[in-house]
Amino acid sequence: LAGKSYDVVVIGAGTGGYSAALRASQLGRSVALIERGERLGGTCLLRGCIPTKAFLRSAEVLDTVNSSKDWGIQATGTIDRDGILAFKKRTVDKLVNGLTGLVKARGIDVVSGRAVLDAPGRVSVDGEEIAAGDIVIATGSRPRVLPFIELGDRVITSDRALELDSVPSSVVVIGAGAIGLEFASFYRSLGAAVTVLEALPRIAPLEDEDSSKEVARVFKKRGIKTMAGVSIASVTESGDAVGVTFRSEDASGSAEPETLAAEMCLVAVGREPVSDGLGYEEAGVRLERGFVKVDETLATSAPGVWAVGDVASTPLQFAHVAFAEGICVAERIAGMDPPPIDYTGVARVTFCSPEVASVGLTEEQATERGEDVEIERYSFQGLGKANILRETGVAKVIARKDDKQVLGVHMVGPHVTDLISEAMLLTNWEASAFDVARLIHPHPTLSESIGEAMLALAGKPLHTQ
Ligand SMILES: Cc1cc2nc3c(=O)[nH]c(=O)nc-3n(C[C@H](O)[C@H](O)[C@H](O)COP(=O)(O)OP(=O)(O)OC[C@H]3O[C@@H](n4cnc5c(N)ncnc54)[C@H](O)[C@@H]3O)c2cc1C
């Protein structure tokens, strides 16, 4: 390894790193992909998107089986913890093997070990130095923990939760972002009593306010308690229980501490960048609260050094954002000129039940920008398909009043994480509801929610007033 030289050296084989490596090699560059973990894939494949969605699929099957009499089928489900873990493992293994084969087929050199940035153009892996034309930092993120919380067997983050050591009968989830909501939903489906505590004024705090309300409403119906505007005072593990003490400001401003006891506490208060002790600042790469500072081309402050994915100071931490950033950087290194990523146009997805998805501006953001907006809320109750699935949901479309251009779409309900892709095209292509209303959505499908909202915005609602 020592003395080797590559056009591109990528540090970290997660979503951002491997997509940069794949695209760079496709563009004819010699590439080394350095990974300190045992397998390729990073958070998304090994500890994030894929294993959590496998868990949520198991939960969905259980929920469906347990309510099967609604469809005239008599059945009840029993949890098989080993089976849930085996399904997750099979799914992850298949995708990791696929990725490993693809990386090999593209002629990328995978280097095993912990990389340190020595200087622009120089990286060392466990002490051996490699030369690089360009370097892509893609070292990702890890769970953030509040400084006063000590992790243990019953106070865990998502990493440990994926081991499913036991099926808990009660859980307190701290944090109501995507990860907190997904695990709350999962544990509830497995039968646990679940309480979600959020510091900000509402759950799903980054979503449109109506989406937050809808998730809280459906969660309540499912028996999940949510509390927002809460500040955590302490989390203590003792024997077979955890005590979570918190204050919740009521309208009068008084804040008496309360304590919740549960079998487990999941801390899901966000992710922090992996950037310390890797030589970044010493090599001239500026950090911002630990994130690698990048400009709109994803270049860092050091020449020939780029950053992508969760470690970069860009606004969204999603696998699909990391993919896009990795591809952009590889293309720029190859001398192409892809446009900067428009982060408002990226779809945001949360896979709890009900699912939450959105793209474009929230109502609040559109109003702040001085847009004169028209809002259309379409309830899934009017959809044949939703009735057959026995699900409810809502699609809220924010359009400009005069030309009916779609500025934002916010959905809560079944399969909205898939449905949002149509809305993603509408907002990014600056479509007008007048044009979209002429296009025909297949029946009976959930996609009719968007079709009906467009008809309503165009002044000719079909199944609504
Ligand atoms: C529980 C959970 C659920 C999620 N669900 C979704 C979802 O449904 N959809 C979605 O879009 N996103 C989801 N995400 C977010 C998504 O996983 C991340 O945004 C994405 O994986 C970021 O990719 P990355 O390449 O930046 O970092 P990572 O995937 O974290 O990869 C970084 C890699 O760098 C390696 N590395 C670090 N330091 C070094 C070093 N010094 N030398 C060599 N290698 C190093 C690490 O081992 C790791 O493999 C989820 C995240 C979590 C935690």
Task: Provide a descriptive summary of the structure in words.
This protein has 465 residues and is of the alpha/beta class. It is built from 13 helices and 24 strands. It has helices spanning 15-26, 42-47, 49-66, 81-105, 158-161, 178-189, 209-222, 319-333, 363-368, 384-389, 416-428, 433-436, 448-457; strands spanning 5-11, 31-35, 109-112, 115-119, 122-125, 128-137, 141-143, 155-156, 170-174, 193-197, 224-227, 230-238, 241-248, 257-262, 264-267, 271-273, 287-288, 291-292, 305-307, 348-350, 355-360, 373-379, 394-400, 406-413. Strands 1, 2, 3, 4, 5, 6 and 19 form a seven-stranded mixed beta sheet that branches. A hairpin with a 2-residue loop joins strand 4 and strand 5 (122-125). Helix 1 (15-26) runs parallel beside helix 8 (319-333), helix 3 (49-66) packs antiparallel against helix 4 (81-105) and helix 3 packs parallel to helix 6 (178-189). It is globular and about 70 Å long. The mean pLDDT is 97. Flavin-adenine dinucleotide binds next to helix 1, strand 2, helix 2, helix 3 and helix 8.
Distance between the first and last residues' Cα: 69 Å
- Largest sheet: number of strands, sense, barrel closure: 7 strands, mixed
Number of beta-strand segments: 24
Give start-end ranges of low-pLDDT stretches.
none
Count of separate DSSP helical elements: 13
Q: Indicate the structural class.
A: alpha/beta
The percent of residues in helical segments reads 25-40%
List the helices and strands and how they pair.
Blueprint: E1 5-11, H1 15-26, E2 31-35, H2 42-47, H3 49-66, H4 81-105, E3 109-112, E4 115-119, E5 122-125, E6 128-137, E7 141-143, E8 155-156, H5 158-161, E9 170-174, H6 178-189, E10 193-197, H7 209-222, E11 224-227, E12 230-238, E13 241-248, E14 257-262, E15 264-267, E16 271-273, E17 287-288, E18 291-292, E19 305-307, H8 319-333, E20 348-350, E21 355-360, H9 363-368, E22 373-379, H10 384-389, E23 394-400, E24 406-413, H11 416-428, H12 433-436, H13 448-457
Parallel strand pairs: 1-2, 1-6, 2-3, 6-19, 8-15, 9-10, 9-15, 10-11
Antiparallel strand pairs: 4-5, 5-6, 7-16, 12-13, 13-14, 17-18, 20-21, 21-24, 22-23, 23-24
Helix pairs in contact: 1-8, 3-4, 3-6
